[in-house]
Fold this sequence. Notes:
Chain A is α/β, with parallel strands linked by helices. Chain A contains 13 helices and 18 strands. In chain A, strand 1 (4-16), helix 1 (20-31) and strand 2 form a beta-alpha-beta unit. The mean pLDDT of chain A is 96. By secondary structure, chain B is mainly α. Residues 1-19 and 25-55 of chain B have low confidence and may be disordered. Chain B is globular and about 60 Å long. Classes of the chains: A alpha/beta, B mainly alpha. At the A-B interface, helix 6, helix 7, helix 10 and helix 11 of A face helix 2, helix 3, helix 5, helix 7 and helix 8 of B.
Amino acid sequence: MAKTTRHSNQYDVVVIGSGAGGGTTTRVLAEMGVKVALLEAGPMLDPATEYKEHQWPYDWDHRGAETGGKAYFGNQKPFGFFTTTSGGWQLDGEPYTIGEGSQFQWFRSRIVGGRTNHYGRMSFRLSEIDLTGYDRDGLGLNWPITYNEIAHYYDKAERFIGVTGTVEGIPTAPDGVFQKIPPPKAHEQMTRAAAKKLGIPFIANRRAVITRNHNGRAGCHYCGQCGRGCLTASAYASSQVDVFPAVESGNVTLFTEAMAREVLTDSSGRATGVLYVNRKTQREERVLGRIVVLAAGSCESARILLNSKSNLFPDGLANNSGHVGRNLMDSVGFSVRGRIPSFEGLTSYNTDGFGSSHLYAPWWDWKNHAQLGFPRGYHIEVSGGFGMPRIGSFHAAGEKYGYGQKMKQRIREEYGSTIRFAGRGEMMPNKNSFCEIDPKVVDKWGIPVLRFHFKWTDHEWAQARHMEETFKDIIGVLGGRITSLGNRWEQQGISVPGTIIHEVGTARMGIDPSSSVVNPHMQAHDVKNLFICDGSVFVTNPDKNPTLTINALAWKAAEFMAEELRKGNV
Amino acid sequence: MSRLVQIETSQEGDISRRKVLHAIALSVTATGFSSLEPIWGQHIHEAVNHEREKDGTYAPQLLTEHEFKTIRHLAELIIPADAKGPSGAEAGAAEFIDLLCSQNDILANIYKDGVSWIDTRMRHICKTSFLRAPETQKTTLLDQFVEAELNIEQHPELSSGVTFFNWMRKMSIDAYYTSKFGIKDIGYMGNDTLSEYTVPQKEIDAMIKKAGLA
């Protein structure tokens, strides 16, 4: 890697990462006429080859078990063969390490659009209650921005992306600009009725799926396969909705297979561009710009900063506070599955819907944390219905009913009668949960890798137990019985850290440069022309799946950048 | 709108699945089309649901003829034909198992050793292979497996057989329920393209009422 190619073009902005944050930043800037270089570590997305939408198991000789029956040995693609686009918990030649006594799983997706190609599309706004938790319980920090300051950007993001929902007036779940949502399915309506008796409100889910034609995208056609990637882009993915149109505008140059190594700086401490490895040639190249934006995903962005060492920044770029990589948070996850006999009488109907739950329960008991024994809330997702059969769907029935005619008949009768409740809860930042550079391990390009340290505290454990009791209660009111506690990642009683894939907090936002990395414009305190537009800027990790907030904050940051460029401030 | 029209008019010929998907993927980036016509959704569907023609003369790739036939018969016993669907064998269980065995030595050993085990067992009982044994002897053995798997410590002599039976059962189930037959049998109604999503509201209301949750 002796020779470095320097791209002669100087761009206004160099963005690292094409997921929710990088995609939004790039598109908003491009729409304002700003020239952007967008770097993506993976290849170009070709939805036709990448997405498996509408395929049946019988379209494949292996039926979805993958070559050699990987699914039978626990080596299948995460979330199954048909679901999930490129990426996984481990990538060839790109290791990460785990500190002693810690657990962490890191899901990376190296492709244009990153994880937005297959994510759950849950789109919840942070509320004023979420932003000011410190005032009530003294944990973590308050966010340095108010709800009113970001509401405008949530509006913009929702209007552009398209998010379903209904106006409810619940303080923990601020209303937004909503697309009409399809009607709730039978098991969801039963759940709503049962949960009501327990004082838990189930309301229309808020997901980044359009149900009517919008901005040149076709409304949902209800195949329920958002997790496979959506060929019609009815479900939001930054690749199809942000990046492709931005590239068409002529203001964006997309560099694929560009693995960012470090942010370059000059002797005055300004960022000048990005040094990356061209994965095709294995050579280092650099791309220069007036502004550099990190949107590589919380942990990858922290890694790049920590690897960008210089005389001026011996501990990594923008890390005078020492907080880069600190405050790493995931969501708390736990689930309970049950069988509801009364569902058996229902005639099978199409329950695919718009994918995932049509109803969810926002956190309902925010006034009672003093009694609850844990400081912050969670929301409930419900799944069930008559799903597409896949490898493993009926193994448990086989074990229960033996074989033969009786088994076949019971599988028929029980089909569609299971239900699953999953909680997604707020974790508090703690000093034992962070990522840092492993001094001994490098990836296949010689770039030092991350080492993760992570501990759940009593707050999270208590919350997971509350989830368990609540889900058991709902199943009880439904007249069902529990069939399993926890999924494969939750067997210890709480999700393995990282597996909810909501990792945030590694370059938090704040007013005080000694305890935060960026200001409320997502601008690094230490480097005025460096911005961070992904989940790393989160101050806390409320139970609101982070993507919509990443979209909104990136939009806010992009507008500020354009203004700063216009004024000549950067 | 232009790209939409192009796709629809070119649909007359034998447009390849890949071509349709490419066109759809491209049109997502194009501005100015206003609706997903139902017929267009149908094209996605037809294009992706390319059916594999089977001529019915499958030649096992790894298993011997005898092993293949034994496995086929076991799939028939595990998922027998009835009014709502054919047997696991007819749904391609043996082909599915043989294919994966040809790609994975661990699986191959499970099935080869398994067939050998039940043949040996049957020879002890009635001096013939599993395949040629009387039907009652076959089901007696399967019943023994089912009983023993609940309490394997007390049936150590059956443990190899039970392990094989377990593999046989789960892969027969998967082969059947992921086939068109199995999907029809249980009545999975989705993987469709709809212009509107609806639910059987009257039936749901009745269910909520019946459960005392209204």
